[in-house]
Amino acid sequence: DEYLKPTMADDALLMIDFEELSQNNCASNSSISACQNESSHDSSRTSLLEAKLQQVQQAYLELLEKSNNTESKDDSVNNAYFDSYADYSIHSEMLQDRARTEAYRDYIYHNKELFSGMDVLDVGCGTGILSMFCAKGGAKSVTAVDNSKIIDKTKQIIRRNNMS
Asked: Rounded to whole angstroms, how far apart are CA atoms 109 and 78?
């Protein structure tokens, strides 16, 4: 009973007794022929609805197929993107950009109150430099995540800096 509560107060669909409707439908008609006509009408309506259902199912299958084709294209684009960060040269270039790297470091070190005792998630961590800055900046924990193969090198860097 706890889970069988309607989400809408006075939901009209919950007030209909469908079994009673189907049993009393023909009984309320004045003649058997009227009930037979209604049954014939119901049968043709059922056929029409079944045909519509088949059309909707076919459209759904076509959409699924298009979606699968799109996903494979998206996957190849994603793979190319993440693979571009697996190469050390891009990370070397970013680390050698002293103004950029030192700006991140200085911000974290000069705003320790923002990081102290916090859990940090570094998504796209690359070599883990920002993760290490956060750890030194007082973060309670730092989780470094990357979807490229650079993550293997990142683990080594973190261990060599005694931060694992």
From this structure: 34
